[in-house]
Every structure is written in structure tokens, then in C-alpha cells.
Amino acid sequence: MNNFSFSYSVTQSLKGLWRNRVMSLASILVLVSCMLVLGTFYALNLNINYNLDDLTLLNEVAAFVDEDCTGEEIEQVRQQIVAMDDLVNDVEYISKEMALEAEKEKFKDYPALFATLQDGANPYRASFMITYKDASLIEDLEYKLGQISIERTVVAEDGTESVTLVYPVDKVTSYTEIAETLENLRDGVRNVLLGFMAILFVVSMFIIVNTIRIAVFTRQKEIAVMRYVGATNGYIITPFVFEGIFMGLIAGILAFLVEWLIYDRAAAIITSQYRIFSVVGFGSFALLLAFSFLLIGLFAGVSGSMISIARYLKEKE
Fold first, then answer.
1. Tens of pLDDT along 159-206?
2. Where is mean pLDDT largest: 10-14, 152-156, 176-180?
């Protein structure tokens, strides 16, 4: 494209946007709404995954052990859990002291929660945090954990020793029901938002197509003259394509700025009032979001323009 045709296309497209500013604005706003729905879904899904990973709810069970277990017995239990390699991915032992310190760190902004504990008091129990392989086999894993046994030497009052079989894992806690509920919630939110996005995208395409059709209609005499003097279809189409590109780019930039503003405001409220939740920083996905918005805007603008002008040229053939 030479400099003349480029400047002509840009100039005519800007004139077209201003001439049909009401329809152009409607197209841009609907497209912005579509992108905001997409951005909101992505940010929400990202934060749900981040918090689920942080809370370790998706694929872990906690096996609490008898408080009378010695260090040697704890190691025996660990070895038996590790041997369940068809069910278990990883095993980590959490002592009472480690559990207490972890909770203090987690709720460091609420020191009053632990102020009532007397020196040396520790309400937490030692446990094994077990990452499992398949959620459908969680019942098998819980059963096998309950069947773990060790031999313990017991000394009677008269000094005689006897060996007895004990089951050191006295409680198993899994979060599968909570995880499934949160997964279902996430899937429901995703489906609703994707449905809204699809509807808004179709509406925005429809408005863009009609905006370009109006622009074509207002310039039909000019187009007829250009065709009469031998102008190519590409020369005629290009200004309208640029018009769609400008609408898409404007929509993408506006959507990104609005999403940024809304996300930062929501993040500030959540972190100040609901400190139990963690919020992913906007900067960690800002570049991807900006690129996606611009790509969607360009696709919608160019596609809408091409559909509209192609129909017009076909009608005039």
C-alpha cells in the first residue's frame, strides 16, 4: 500500500467513525463489555486456583498420629505410607511445633488468636500431609491409612514387657468435598461468564457489521464513482477495514484500563477486609490481558468490516 492510499484509508476511516459516532460508540462499548467479562473470568479463575493451591485443598489428606508415638514409630509410619506408591505422590511430616508456627505465620495479622495460649501449650497435633494421585481412590487411601500398624513394647507395673500391635493413625481428614464444591463453583462461574461473553461478542459483531454497513451506505455514491474509474476492491475496502481496526483497538485499550481500575479496587478491598484470601497481583498477568484484549478487538473489528463490505460488494455485482 503506497503512502497516498494509506493516508487516504486512515483519513476516511476516522471520518467514518465520526460520521457514525453513535453506532461506533455502541460497537466499542459492547466490545468493551465482552472483554471485561473475559478479563473478569480470567482474573477470578486465576485467584481461585491460587487460593486453592495455597490452602492445599485439592489433593491432600491429613493423617493425624497418636501423640504417644516416638520418633522411631513416626518413621515406621512414614515408611508404610510411602510404600503406598500406587495411591500416594508425596508425604510430609508436620510436627506439633511446625503446625503451630505455620498457623501463627498464616494469621500473623491476628496475634490475639494465640494470645490466650499458655507457655508450652499447643492445641495442634502431629500429622502426615499426604498428596494423593487419584481423587476417585481417596476412600481406598483413607482405609489403608487406618490399617497402618506398628509393634509397641509395653512395660507393665510388675516390670514385665509385652509387645502389642497399635494403630497410630487415629484420624484422617480429607478436603475432597470442599474441593469438589469449590471446583463446581468455579465451573459454574466460568460457564456463566463464558455464556455472557459469547452473547456480548455476537452482539458486538452485529453492531460493528451494521456500523460499517451504514458507513458504506453513506458513501455509496463515492464508492460507485471509484468503481467507475477503475478503483480496485482492495482500495475501496481498506478504509472500512481501518474503521473496524480503530474500533477494535479503542475497545481493547478502554477494556484494559477499566479492568485494571476495577481489579486494583477489588484487590484493595479484599486484602483489607478479607485477609484470609490472597490476591494475585495485576502486574503478573497484565501483559497477557492487554495482548488478548487487543487481539480480540482487532479480530472483531476486521471480521465485522470484512463481512459488511463483502456483502455490499456482492449485492452490487
1. 777 778 888 888 888 766 666 676 677 777 777 777 776 776 677 667
2. 152-156
- Spatial distance between the Cα atoms of 273 and 275, rounded to a whole number of angstroms: 6
Give every strand in the sheet of 169-174, ordered side by side.
Answer: 88-94, 127-132, 60-65, 169-174
CA dist 232 → 8, 19, 159, 235, 313 (Å): 14, 24, 108, 5, 11
CA dist list (Å): 242 to 4, 208, 239, 276, 304:
15, 12, 5, 48, 11
Q: What is the CATH number of domain 59-174?
A: 3.30.70.3040
Helices (H), the chain: 3-19, 21-55, 71-82, 96-106, 112-115, 138-146, 176-218, 220-228, 233-273, 286-316
> pLDDT-based confidence at 59, cuts 50/70/90?
confident
> Which letter, b or e, does each residue of 282-309 get, where b requires 16 or more Cβ atoms within 10 Å of its Cβ?
eeebeeebbebbbebbbebbbebbbbbb
Q: What is the DSSP string of 207-257?
A: HHHHHHHHHHHHTHHHHHHHHHTT--HHHHHHHHHHHHHHHHHHHHHHHHH
Where do the domains of the chain lie? 3-54+179-316, 59-174
pTM for this prediction: 0.56
Mean pLDDT of the chain: 77
